[in-house]
């Protein structure tokens, strides 16, 4: 150990510091988890960002919250694992690659599946580093040795196992069903990947003639082109207007197809004309009616959104072109009744960004009810998982109740290929709807199964489709830990502790993970689900690419440092689950709130520099704890005594803690308890705010100032007091660094290493989090000390108001009728004189009527005065006091009138009435004091 501590540089450089510690943490594998170490596990799996992406504000917010929880629990002694990884983003990657091929004049079919996948893996390897590198830049304390990718070998094994087990259990089936089809990506998409957008459209009314020539019925639709696939018109069987038509037939215009009129209670007689066109192959509700009434299913749509041969004259036309042409034909032939302006919701593909098309297609499905019902039993019987805030529990539950079977097949190549092999030799060498298949964990296993079923001449072809991305990411909490194998990680870290995520993917991801976790592991995959809000832009709007209002976190990190951004994002959270608004100036690419956090970092840095410059090169451990003096005082009751802040005797030693030392220790332990309580209940924003107030206000602005004079005492008489001040400064500073570390890991690591002279390889992030000592918390002392602080602040303000130069000492008078207040001020006289530059201080119960003119203010019921002799213009000051008096008198008059009103006193809540009485008493006291101050100026 060296005799001196290398001090911190004069200016804090976040960029050098942050890069230094990010490298240190990774090089030294500080965050490498080890189940062999035992202890209480605490695991969070990172919500895997798309491999296509780069760090956006949502990533920064989410990962900062997670990392704060992980760092906190690691310091609390938990065996913590923060597991990183990325998602293969099937549709997103496909879209990117197909655009690249299109620019080259190629298609994926021309390239072939094998070459396309080679290209996809190359692209993934080159782009993956972007988001991963940016997460490293954020300083997240993940175990990079456990990094996973949703298509790595282990996770592919898990997905195949998932599919095979589901199929063996009868929970996966292949069927022709109406699915959400995205013509842009030419793939099925799940209900969760559909976004309903309000659009200004039209409602077209058409006349369908009865075949017998006895009249017609009127139907209305927002998708006229689908009438080409109509196979019925439905009415409510109880609708007197139409029930006589049930069983008759209509002649479908254009197509000249005879279709029946059916009765179905699904039809709302009050909606539109009460007659509904039925297109079973192109509408979910019509699909169900078609099944109930055994109607034909006529598909008129190709997978690219053009019409097929079933559309007659409109074959080959894009669906929206055909829409116009169908309407024109119906109008020409006299079947168009009217057109109305109509605002309605249109489902859009979240990835393809085009309106989806309900399309009859053979796909793979998961039977969702057994999974959802089991998950509901965990929620209803065990309240598992627990949602924070709790209001999201109902949203989650309602969704599970409403879930329909899950379409899991996607007509793409990038992803987990479906582990089903078709016996194409049974259907002419092609995969058809009726081609028999086997499901297996490998091609070899599939061939073995097929040989026994179809003979040695069987020819197999694997299903070309891939599985929905959520089918793999739903396994994420346990597949990343080694499932389906019973690995050491899985046994120790599963179920994970907390899922931290935004409310917008409760349905996409959270419900999938709970259903799959409950089914395959018999447990919910996490104990708590902490739902946070969104980061809104400076105008309170949701950030989006389409709106162009995103705020680049990397730009703010480059300008202010990573810790500043992290601290801002956490500190802005008010109540769990609330959205936060990020201040941002787009013209200058500046954020006042992030700048304030950078200033906070600078404040801490400068305070730490000052402290270390006054520790004589000693560490906190070498100096010893200041709390030992309190312990000595408790044990040695016969020790000499000193007067405490109330003038009472208290046991002490010659080098015992002074009042300011006891106050800061009480405040410190209060903040330790407050911070711990907040974080334990997911009040991260409240914890960060509390630390800000304590560090900036109590420690930097007050305690350091209060002990400066003691630090400069070099004589033998002041040496003991100086040592105690050094001990307290070092002790509280180290504690502050540990408390703040989860939120601002880089600057706290840097200061802590310098302060403690930590040995190589040590890190603050694995030190014990501070524990609160309730015996050192003295709320009464803190309240009394607040009067002292306000008195000093008031004197400083009066000096500034009077224009008194900083170096000039003044006389001061403090008057209070309260014995308690006078005792507090008397015991703190030296602090007041030192920090307010007071030459002589008079503390009295009554003011001398002969007192010369003075400038004055009020702290509670204490008058604080500075005699004015030659300091200020009395006439100007008198006018100011008279204005304040008039305001106080008006307030008292208003309150008196309210309290004189029997209606208010009798009907208002008691606490409101009491509040008015207290306010009146305060106003009257202010009037009395202001009048007394004015009398001083006469």
Would you give an account of this structure?
With 938 residues, the chain is of the alpha/beta class. The protein has 30 helices and 31 strands. Strands 6-5-14-16 form a 4-stranded antiparallel β-sheet. α15 links the parallel β22 and β23. About 3% of the residues have low confidence.
For the secondary structure, the number of strands is 31
Q: What proportion of the residues is helical, as a percent range?
A: 40-55%
Could you state the oligomeric state of the chains shown? single chain
Count of discrete alpha- or pi-helical segments spanning 4 or more residues: 30
Q: Indicate the mean pLDDT.
A: 90
Radius of gyration: 37 Å
The backbone outline, from C-alpha atoms, is elongated
User: How is the main sheet built?
Assistant: 4 strands, antiparallel
Biggest sheet, strands in spatial order? 6-5-14-16
- Termini separation: 67 Å
The stretches of 5 or more residues where confidence is low (pLDDT under 50) are 632-655
> Helix/strand-derived class?
alpha/beta
What is the percentage of strand-forming residues? 15-25%
